[in-house]
Amino acid sequence: MIKTIDTANYNFKSKWNEMKTSLYLAVLMVSLALLIHTVSAQVQMGNLVVIVKPEKSFVESGQIPVLVGNVTDQAGKPVANAQVYVSTSLGISSLSTDTDGKFRYQYPSPLGPAQYLVNVHAQKASYGTGLSSTTFFVKGVHLVSAQQYNSKTVSGDKINLDPVASKILQNIEIAKRQQAAQEAKLKQIEQEKKFEEGQRQLANSQLQIDLQGWFAQLNPFTPRNAYATFVSQVNQTVQTIFWGQFNFTEQKTNQGLSAKTQVLQNGGSSEQARKAFIQNSSSTRAEIVQVNKDLNIRYGHADNVTQAKFDKYGNLPRS
Fold first, then answer.
1. Which of 52, 149, 182, 249 has minimal Cβ neighbours within 10 Å of its Cβ?
2. Burial (Cβ within 10 Å: 0-12, 13-18, ≥19) of residue 61
3. Element (H, E) at 243
């Protein structure tokens, strides 16, 4: 295949081997004037939507470029405190979105005239990830007078013999490698996040298994189950009375816990909560005697006439 490249012939004062220009600078040198041009792309990965673009419409050579963007969910609601990774030719920088889901990235120094690609990767737990990219041009290179410009065509094997054409081809390959490296970094970040999420799910699954085993081991020792073991050894004719006493005690305990919680929710101290628990969970001797009377009558172990002979302390009157 024949490759054709249009280049410019200039009156350079320096030697060819001293040229330290990039691919895009070489292309810009054959332009009449360069204006800022931006292309913003939005890619959705997971549940986040990321949009990024240059802050200014025009960037002159020597100015510091600034990128602005925002992160939202699928419904368009801003996502605050999302982690944002900005990948440029200078490396990867990390920042976070503000309460409105916005972020701002400023280059550390001015950029020379060229076209620049920026990739942005955002992520947040329970939201997923999002990816966006943008390109922009920096102008500032002007051609010499028209009399100094001549066009020529270099093709075939002559490309390797032309210094400018060779440099352009080299920079094309460098740009390809840089882009591939940037994409590899973003892919690695995504793979690491997926791995971390997988490990988190495995850990949670193991935790649930451990908790179920723990609860199974403790189940025989809960108050009701432990009491059931005790009651099973008591004469069956009075087991219902024992259970009635247990239910009464359990009810009083729950009343005490409810009172303690209420005090704490209202801003009370732990000492006030402790006193509220004791006050509401405690039973007087008269209450216990009355409960036992009622239980004996209910389950046929005594009648009202007999029970009425006992005083409030559970004693029979002396004759």
1. 149
2. middle
3. helix 239-265
Structural domain of 150: 4-183
Instruction: Choose the final residue of a domain: 127, 153, 183.
Output: 183
The answer to whether residues 79 and 139 belong to one domain is yes
- 248 near 294, Cβ under 8 Å? no
239 domain-assigned: yes
68 Cβ neighbours under 8 A, 6+ residues apart: 52, 53, 54, 55, 102, 103, 104, 105
Residue 191 lies in a domain: no
Using the 3D structure, point to which of 154, 183, 212 is the last residue of a domain: 183
Count of beta carbons in the 10 Å neighbourhood of residue 136: 23
What is the chain's pLDDT, residue by residue, as a tens digit (319 residues)? 333 334 333 333 344 344 444 433 433 333 333 333 333 444 444 578 999 999 886 788 888 999 999 999 988 999 999 999 999 988 889 999 999 999 999 999 998 888 889 898 888 988 888 888 888 888 765 433 333 334 444 444 555 666 765 676 677 778 778 888 888 988 999 899 999 999 999 999 999 999 888 888 888 888 889 889 998 898 888 888 899 889 999 999 999 999 999 999 999 999 999 999 999 999 998 888 888 888 888 887 777 777 677 776 767 777 6
Q: Which residue has the tokens 């320096």?
A: 14
